[in-house]
Specification:
By secondary structure, the chain is mostly helical. The protein contains 11 helices and 2 strands, in the order H-H-H-H-E-E-H-H-H-H-H-H-H.
């Protein structure tokens, strides 16, 4: 029973991380019709910013607060300088973000010297449930993810900004005719998606050792989760991330990790083959 509880919580905490990564990726894909292949490197940037704050003697939580802001600003600049030029050619936009992701990854690799760096958990200790000890920080990750999902939903469904985002998503031409600056909406949306990835990187860096390849695994799983969940709604990417996160974290408990990764890909491909629109395909929040 204790092992089952530990396994369930590990699956839940890993799924929460995937949800944060995929939420930003899914919003960008739904809004702009492109996949941001630098999203994994935005996770890496969030982790690296947190490390820089810690290495400079500041509290780890200060870096975690700064990471989504800095990565969001970086994403806003990336959209304005690169992505915006390729809206008419989504394939070129994806190739461009992939190339920029490589640049970010190798830059971080050179700055870290290729070493693996460790950052302490800002909240140490464990929560005791019966006879089982659960990491307090992993519990915090789950709680923060739930709060972010709720806040993002309210932002997109209950505010004027969310109304403009949904209008731009539904019909960009009509939105522009109504006086909405779709260029600003695209930039803000891209920055928001990047900030979510930066936050994910900040939260997970105490759990996963910081290395230049940190974001690569989350990009692949995030891409699969968006396809499984469906593009065009807020709930779709969250649902896809939940499914992929649970499978990615749960299968290694019963079969070898390498086989588990392959099986997740095979199941995702099979699902998309028979339901290409994903779990939830309706447009809107």
């Amino acid at each position: 029973m204790g092992n089952l509880l530990i396994a369930s919580f590990d699956i839940l905490s890993f799924g929460a991380i995937i949800v944060l990564v995929v939420l930003g990726l899914g919003i960008i894909a739904s809004m702009m019709g492109i996949f941001n292949f630098a999203q994994g490197e935005f996770v890496l940037l969030g982790a690296y910013v947190t490390y820089l704050f810690y290495a400079s003697g500041l509290p780890v939580w200060a870096g975690m607060l700064a990471a989504p802001v800095i990565v969001g600003i970086f994403g806003f600049a990336l959209e304005a300088l690169v992505v915006r030029r390729f809206y008419a050619a989504p394939t070129m936009a994806m190739l461009g973000t992939y190339a920029l992701g490589l640049i970010i990854r190798e830059t971080v690799r050179s700055l870290t010297g290729g070493f693996y760096l460790k950052i302490p958990e800002p909240i140490s200790g464990s929560i005791i449930l019966g006879s089982v000890q659960i990491s307090s920080w992993r519990f915090t990750i789950v709680v923060v993810t739930i709060l972010i999902i709720a806040a993002s939903y309210l932002l997109l469904s209950k505010t004027s900004f969310g109304l403009k985002v949904r209008a731009t998503l539904e019909n960009p031409s009509l939105a522009r005719a109504s006086g909405i600056s779709t260029r600003q909406i695209y930039g803000a949306t891209f920055a928001f998606g990047a900030a979510l990835a930066g936050l994910a990187g900040a939260l997970i860096v105490p759990v996963f050792t910081l290395s230049a390849d940190l974001g690569a695994r989350f990009l692949i799983q995030g891409f699969i989760a968006v396809l499984v969940g469906g593009i065009g709604s807020f709930i779709g990417p969250v649902a896809g991330a939940s499914v992929v996160g649970v499978l990615s974290a749960g299968l290694p408990w019963v079969i070898p990790p390498v086989i588990a990764d392959v099986l997740v890909f095979v199941l995702a491909i099979a699902f998309v083959k028979f339901r290409p629109q994903g779990l939830i395909s309706a447009r809107g929040v």
